[in-house]
Amino acid sequence: MADLATYALTAIGLVFFVAGTAGLIRFPDTFSRLHALTKADNLGLGFIVMGIGFQTERWSQLAVLLLIWALALLAAGTVAQLVARAALTTGKDE
Amino acid sequence: MSAALDIALCALILGVGLATVVGRGVFRAVIFFITYGLLLAIGWARLGAIDVALAEAAISAGLTGALLLAAQGRLRTMKTEAEPPARARLPAALAGLSVACVLGWAWFALPVDQAPDLSQVLPESGVGNPVTAVLLNFRAWDTLLESVVLLTALVGVWMLAQDADWDAALGPRFHARPNGVLANFGRILPPIGLIFGVYLVWAGADDTGGAFQGGTVLAAVILLAMMAGALQPPSVAHPVWRVGLVLGPLVFVLAGIAGALLSDGFLTLPLTIAKPAILTIEAALSLSIAATLALLVIGPPDDQGQDA
Amino acid sequence: MSLSIFALTGAALVGIGIYGLLAQAHLLRRVIAFNLIGSGLFLFLGAAGSRGIGIDPIPQALIITGIVVALSASALAVTLVVALARATGRATLPDEETPR
User: Fold this and answer.
1) How far does the CA of residue B39 sit from the closest CA of chain A (Å)?
2) What is the DSSP track for C51-84?
3) Does any domain span residue C96?
4) pTM over 0.95
């Protein structure tokens, strides 16, 4: 049962990662690429963390997984803001 | 199944490695190099070398990546000439191919030596993590000299400063908007990073971790605090930072001399005090590693480098 | 089986790095290629150290030392590149200007 939940949740997570990557490659400018990358990938990572969470043996391991997810969210959000600001000020849509 | 995973991982590592070398543009090469380091860290974890995986991710991908990104930014603001195209491709490819083939042949030709079994002597080291035991007890010489190499590299980097900049603060000037996202990030993350870095050093005695991995995390905390404006980069002559830089090698050498006077010889640790001695050396060493790595990445004092 | 895969990957990475070191003129790219050679050798050494009984911690300790030394060397090299670019406006060696 736990294995089934892991398979399902990580599969959903991978779908979001694929979508985010497709957006990163296909979208035309920096801002829409950032949007694809941060939103889809953070959601995907959340699903994967939930999926792996079913395999943990202790609550502390689950807590560590959640901490990793929270830190990744924080870092991705901050970096996306900084990249967007840099793109805005230099006006480069590369 | 696991062989398929390893083959896919190695194919990815090779593909990304190739992209760093032949891809278009230096910026892209740097980004690919960071990705490459992270993939390689997964590879080390697959090989069961978790300590190396941590070092690879933190030092090779993280700090080297930051170093290269900063340098690339500086070269761009200096408006250096465009990158010349690759030349002498065929001879270079032949040279690379032949070295790779010789190494591959060596892998199958060399006899499989029985590795010395450290589990017999591990209790004599005072710590439970065999990698830490090798780094700080059995082959402490290497680690002592390595800490000196770090310091020497930093002195070398400082030598490249221009005379006019010598008294200025180290590194380029960082601009973070007060109360902007970066400034806030620089307030939230350092406490977490501090705990994690100290934990890695402490846990390194018996579990995964160690002075180098923990010191690298602490260095990242220092760098982030500097970029976010929470910590001012010191000047070359700053006394507290100088003490921090030499503390690790100094404690290490003193412990070595104490071993020569009181025990069997230079850098030998008697079993009774081995664990506290190793932890003391590691604590001092990780402080120095953190300070040295952070200052290595921000580079020499530079007043002209306005934007980083 | 897996060990051979990683060892051969390491060997190939050394080859790729040597190609980059020889063929690319931009000095930052050469620093990256140099790092590629180093990490390929580490991978080779690490795989070799895992043959025999279990995992040998001695190569692991050597590799961690090597990674740190590689960072020190890279930092010095990158600073030299920036200093050269500041002095000459180029990030390539003077005798390797492209004919135009």
Assistant:
1) 17
2) SSSS--HHHHHHHHHHHHHHHHHHHHHHHHHHHH
3) no
4) no
